[in-house]
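Suppose you are handed only these lines of text.
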Amino acid sequence: MLKMENILENVESPLLFLVEERVKTFKHWPFGSNDKCNVRNMAEAGFYSVATGKEDADSAKCFLCGKELDGWEPSDDPWAEHKSHAAKCAFVQLGRREDELLLSEFLSVIKQYMINERKRVAELAKEQIDERAKLVKRHLSRK
Ligand SMILES: [Zn+2]
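From them, the structure of the protein bound to zinc ion can be written out as follows.
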């Protein structure tokens, strides 16, 4: 039997498919609650903050398609921006907040998120292995 808790246990990365988890990432978001692209609207449209400092304070990324956007204007609508820059995103195509999704839709979002995460982790691992292999080769050719 497939249970929600069991599914969540298998996700090692932050639970960014949950809107409240995305809200938490916007620590230094330069826009206020009266702006169209406020934290709540950003998070509901699938974005989380990937800011590392002041210069990229308005960098945000979609948890599902990975599209990264910055240069936000106060009047920007996060859903509209998401749609115009990543029309193929599965979250954009559902086009609704998580709490408005059917369970089956939400599960498919989580599944896609987990597949993407696995791919990302696998790519990172491959890069590290390639890097190691290069070092070993260089080391051997010196002898
Ligand atoms: Zn997206």
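What can we learn from it? The chain has six helices and three strands. The first helix runs from residue 4 to 9.
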